Each structure stands twice: as structure tokens, then as C-alpha cells.
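SAMPLE LOG
Freezer: B-3
Tube label: C17
Construct: single chain, 272 aa
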Amino acid sequence: MSMRRAAVLGSPIAHSLSPVLHRAAYEALGLEWTYEAVEMTEGGLTGFVDACGPEWAGLSLTMPLKVAVLPLLDHSSELVRLSAAANTLVFTPQGREGHNTDVPGMVAAIREAAGPTGLVCTSATVLGGGATGKSAVCAVRELGASVVTVAIRDPRRAHEMQPLADALHVELRFVDWDEAVHHLDAPLVVSTVPADSAAHLVTGVPNDPGLLLDVAYGDSAGTLAQAWRTTGAPVADGLGLLLWQAVGQVELMTGQQAPVERMRDALSAAAR
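STRUCTURE (predicted):
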């Protein structure tokens, strides 16, 4: 296959480990592809996408572009339509396809952390109501939660998320952000906010909590996750999510099965 290009776009983007994952996959698959990190705000997205020529295979999208990209798509997956967020754009002969690999990535990361005993989850708590929060609601619903408490700062988020609740047949219970500390006793808790935003929640970690997925990773990650781990409860961190959402992206862009363990090894080495 001829040389192709791909990239991750977002702001800030310098900390991203996505290039490590995708480059490791391309090398394992024998593909002469390039993958770079591009600092990109909403204002520059349209121009960048329009300028992508036939050599471009796809784009990974992080904040704040998961919603901004939606008007630029010719086709959207069902998960994109449900979550109103796309973290992946694939260039195809039929046009620009939007996908959300965050949802299956979250599900895979949670199941991996749960281990062979699995996870019984009829209810869950999601911290944050933005684009990643919507994806988290989709993920916990797939894992069996029919009642989801969502802690939000902006009351408008409740109105924005109601169509998602209706489509998924899930009951969403919204609480103010200041009340989040009282809702960490669910079988599954997903934090979609930056680590420093969740630091105050450490005092509310139960003595015997359920499973936590903290999507944060990097130098600032771990405050809530570290407190969770001290109880001995299972934790799925942002690196696990990063791996599994990238696995989905690689497969969408290349059409080949992703070399998961090669990607995992590269990510572990880079994180160390």
C-alpha cells in the first residue's frame, strides 16, 4: 500500500500519545504511513479538513473538535448520531465518515479492568456532561446500566443530553457538580473531566467502591484514580481508554486488524 497520512488534531495537543500508538501499529502492519500531532482549534478545522488530499487516510479528533467536526461529515455512524460527538474522521471514496471509537474504547477498557469475573452494572455515575460524558453514557448503557447519575456544572447539559437518554432508554438523573462527591458509590463510575477538576472528590471515595474509569492521563492524571486504588478496587485509567479507542481508529483507517499488543507495549514504554 502506498504512503498515506493521518494525524491527531486538538488543542492542547503536545501531550498526546496517539502518535505513539498509531505509528507502532503502522510499523507492525508494514505500512509506510505517517501520523502526526497537529495543534488545532475550532476556527482552523474546516480549512484543514478541506485541504486534505487523497493521501490522507483519516484524522483523530480530541477536544475541542469532537463536536465541531460534525458539520464537516458526509456520513456518521450510529454512535456519532447518538453521542453527538466524533473522535474519528475517515476519508473514503464515498466521502468523510465520522465515527466514535471512544464508546467501544471505554467498554473495552472497563471490561479489561474488571477482569475475568466481569462487571454487574445496573447503575452508574458519570462525572461531566460534555462530549466525552455523552460517550460515557453510551458506554455504561452497553454495560447494562439503566439508571445513570450525571454530575454537571452547566444545567443546560441536562437538556442537551435528554435526547440521548430517550434513544438509549436510560434514566438520567442530573446532580449539581458540588453534589458529585455524594454519588461515587455506584458499581461503575466514569470520570470524564480533567484530573484537577476531580481532585475534591477524593474525600468522597467509598471504603468499598465499584470500578472507576478515569479518562485523564499524563502528568496531571491520577488524583481520583490513586485514591480509588488505595481501596483495592479496580481502576481503568485513561491509558487503557487511549489504547482501545486507537485500536478502533487504526482498524477503521487501515482496514486491517490492529496489532493490540504491539500498540500496548509502545504505549507502556512511552508512558514510563
